Amino acid sequence: MTAELVRGQNHPLSQARLEIRISAGTPIVAVAALGDENGRIHGAEWVAHPGAPTQPGLEVSRQAAADHRLAVDLDAVPEAVHRVSVLLALPAGGTGPVRFGAVAAPFVAVTGLDGHEVASYTITGLEAESAVVALELYRRQGAWKVRAVGQGYAGGLADLLTDQGLPQAHQLAGSINDAVAQGLARSVQAPPPRTADGDRSRQAAAPALGPDQGGTAPQSGPVPPMSPYGAQTPGGPGQPAPQQPSYPGAAPDPHAVTQPSAPTAGGPIDYSHPRRQNAAPPPPPPTAAPAAPGQPAQPVAGDATGWSMEERLYNQVWGMFEDLARTTAAYRSAVDFAESRMDKELEQVLSDPRSRIGGQGDAARETARARHAQLVAQAQEALDRDLTQLAAEADVVEPALPPAYARWDNPVWHAYRVPMEIPMALRLGDLHLPEADRIRIPMLVRLPLERGLWIDSGAAGSSDGSFTDSHAMSRLGMETAVAHAARLLAVYPAGDFTVHVIDPAGSGAQPLAPLVQTGVLAAPPALGAAGVADVLGRLTQRVDLVQMAVRGGAADSLPPGFDTSQQLLIVNDFPHGFDDRAVNQLRYLADEGPAFGVHLMMVADREQSSGYGPLLDPLWRSLLRLTPVADDHLADPWVGHAWTYEPSLVPPGSHVLQEVLTQVATARTKFL
Predict the structure, then answer these.
(1) Residue 218 in contact with residue 277, Cβ under 8 Å?
(2) pLDDT of residue 218 exceeding 50
(3) Which helix (H) or strand (E) holds 32?
(4) What span, in angstroms and rounded, lies between the C-alpha atoms of 405 and 423?
(5) Closest CA to 311 of 286, 271, 277, 270
(6) pLDDT at 230 > cutoff 70
(7) What is the model's pLDDT at position 468?
(8) Prediction pTM value
(9) What is the pLDDT of residue 208?
């Protein structure tokens, strides 16, 4: 039975190997610190944090996340350690909340390796604090206990670590914040939380409740007109806008599908579709016979909840991504446990001179190795079972994906027609893990893009061990940018998406040929320093104009003939052709542009701009880094796996890109 602790209460621990699960409604940082009998932390090597995630007996997440799983082995901590403190903090310098009083109360649970909860604690009563000592495991008379602490600090991690007696606490807090910022910059955007009515189920979707069952009926009737830069409140003037769906203990999700709300002064432009519903969606129709008793359920494309097949497939893909992340984490944890146990048993054998040699020692070694092999085999069996089910699901989901979610080699592109409305998301490539190389999970990002894209053309080794020189990487980077830009053009309605290109030296002429020859660009690629200044000046002026209109409450009063379409700027060979003014304008577009319909896609080698020093660090962090070759640089928002990313490129010899762009250009001509 789980002990539900209150502040100051303790509970005995009967196991040495534990898992600490943390759940919050917003991304937080999890840190574990070792302390002596007085609770004092002797040095940075006594703290496990995202920059140094493993310490003796401890392993923490490598980035900020809404959910964490921390591994603790009390038998492996040094003898001088008498306390293990779990510290939580809100990321510093981000756009999220800055105090725990503004978010849902964090929940912490101590579990065994079998998942059984030993003790749990909900940290309530926090207000201005941005860091908190959640709980501590402490040694008392040779036995370990857990105590609920809940001590908060308004000064953040620096004040918390200082209070714990850590020398150079401010320097360590700064390094933790830097590691978290880097992790957030390379992380895959987390999916929307699944509500109680929208939980994804592998067996069957949860039925939606009708009005007579306590549920909410879908809204009907005419939808109020929406201007390009704002929407009327569906309820009419003076009526409150509908709220985002929520679940107990969760903060509102910025990516949830909702009805549009009226723009507020200083707020971002609302590009959400006016017909998106926020009531509980109906369950997907049954499309497959139930599985035989004792057999796993047969996978079905679109088995997640959603108002449309597009939404169901989106939720299903994210569910597959989460399932693969967690089942791989369980496998790795089990293997680590088996190796740690074998090492400990072998150490006990070798520590006794009487058992080092002879039959007794050999038998002990064989027993330890056999137990290790058995545990690893059990973990592999469970992993193989889960991967088989996920592979079967991927086999039925991939052919059913719409163009926005599909690979370029999917036959759905041969039946392509210019859409009438914007899809929910866009596929930027595939993700996979070493343990499941045969399973490719589509990497989907919500539309409109919330951050720019950086296609890293720096010469580096790919995940398969091969190396590509700088010229080839630059060409591959531009081919990747063209494929992404073509996909964006293809999934937007005619006239709703405009692409600009800056190619100062003209080095990207060959990869850009499909965009230029089909006539889908707003203008020929800008060349030289004059071309760079002209394009950046026009787009910067556009952002300023829309920003002033929105903040002044006059989003519908833009000049006649103003282009209200989404804008994409592709930049090649940065910083060639850029002076200091152009660099500042580029940073401005990266920071402010996405909220006002201007998006950035850079093909650049960071080393070539090293002369600017730390001035450009915020620029790189604001962009989602992608690569033109397979590379394991992306992390998931649950357990921080290093996922191998592969870009979505057009197969060699295929004409699908030209065919799609030709249709886009034809529709654009008719629209204009």
Answers:
(1) yes
(2) no
(3) strand 17-35
(4) 9
(5) 277
(6) no
(7) 62
(8) 0.62
(9) 32
